[in-house]
Amino acid sequence: MKGLLAIAWVLACMSQIRAQLTIHSESDGDWYEPSTWDCSCIPPNSALVFVDHNVTVTGGMGKSGGSLTVTSTGYMDSFETVQLGCAVDNQGVMVLGDLWIDASALLFENNGYLSCYRVANYRDGLYNSGYWDISDELFLYADLENGTTGYLSASTVSGGAVLENFNVAGFFGADGPAMRIFNHDSLDIHASAGSVVRAIFNTGRLEMTGLTVDTLTNSGSISSSSTHIGKYYSGNGDWFVIPVGQDIFVDAGATMTIIAPGVLNVSNGDLTVNGVLDGNGCVLVAQTTVNNGLITGTIDICDGTPTTAIAPIIDVNTGTVTSGVRYCSPDACTVGIGSSDGSAAIRLFPNPASDRVQLMGIGHGTSIQLVDLYGRSQPIHTRIQHDRVSLDTSEVANGMYVLILQYGRWTATMPLAIMR
């Protein structure tokens, strides 16, 4: 009996020691090969694991205990689902399929290069100061902070959580430093003072607070607070007209400033001003213009379906319009990009893309044009393949673009990102 108790005690001690193991990779290899590790074992869940070499995780994995550190010389890849509830610090390279970050994770920081197909984040305070590319969707069920030296790009961002602290410093987006955001579901953005987003593509519900946006493409609904359009534009004279598919609201207590040559094109919806609309740019409104707040400056309001010919030429005005506001002056209001109406049934994939894009749901004879954020046409080659059209984008530089589809009087616009 004493012998059995002694053996049990030894095994318990060994288990405790094993639970506290610090394990380093010893060579390139598979996670589940003992020869990959300096312990000559498969790392237990509770181990402090350091990936110093090229380690492949075959079949995916889950790690809820201990820690995982990919060092500056490390490379970890997996084409399956990786679920992490442990402390994670990436200083090297991680290339993963689906990444699930549990709420129980004590730490998750990306200070290196992280590439994923899809990411679901349940952990508050997730921090990125490196390069993080998500080729499909980022599901935010908890807050994510992108540091001032971080780059974060995702084809789709969804969920009810918050993206915090987007700052112009250190971001690399289309045509200069800044952040790009794609939203096709529901997203709230709470930004720190002075934060700049180069481009937002929205087809869902988007709420923005404290943000400056250079270019906004919207076919969903937007509520904004203290949001500026075009204020930080630094191009060479050509301004991309902002096509908006539905309604724009300027909230009470908020200010939207449009700086010339900036144009806000509400191409298929209403504009409702409950706060302040200011600037010297232009606003094009296809349907109803409602002012319950203040419209001021020398901004030009051009209502395509006016119900009055007497200034202020605004359909419903219960607020204040100052005397400097203009109405459809030819030097301010010009339209370069058409309506985004009708693109809902069209499939565009992959997006972001590299050298080839597939289009489904367009009819024969549809003209296809790709333009950058300044309206400049880009070189593409098309080929019809059965029920789809293949676009060769190999000659197009990395950046943010808009695909323009036209058939007769019908026009649709769709955002497209080229990333390699």
Task: Describe the protein.
With 420 residues, the protein is mostly beta strands. Among the domains are: 83 residues, no CATH class; 72 residues, Immunoglobulin-like (Sandwich). The chain is 4% helix and 46% strand. The strands form six sheets. Strands 1-3-6-9-11-13-15-17-19-21-23-26-29-32-35 form a 15-stranded parallel beta sheet, with no helix packed on it. Strands 2, 4, 5, 7, 8, 10, 12, 14 and 16 form a nine-stranded parallel beta sheet that branches. An eight-stranded parallel beta sheet has the order 18-20-22-24-27-30-33-36, with no helix packed on it. A hairpin with a 2-residue loop joins strand 42 and strand 43. 41% of the residues are buried.
**How much β-strand is present in the residues?**
over 45%
Structural class, from helix and strand content? mainly beta
Q: What are the segments in which pLDDT stays under 50 over at least 5 consecutive residues?
A: 5-19, 165-178, 232-241, 334-344
Distance between the termini: 66 Å
SS element count, helices: 1
Helical percent range?
under 10%
- Give the tally of β-strands: 43
The largest sheet is: 15 strands, parallel
How are the strands ordered across the major sheet? 1-3-6-9-11-13-15-17-19-21-23-26-29-32-35
Rg over CA atoms: 26 Å
In brief:
Helices cover 4% and strands 46% of the residues. It is built from one helix and 43 strands.
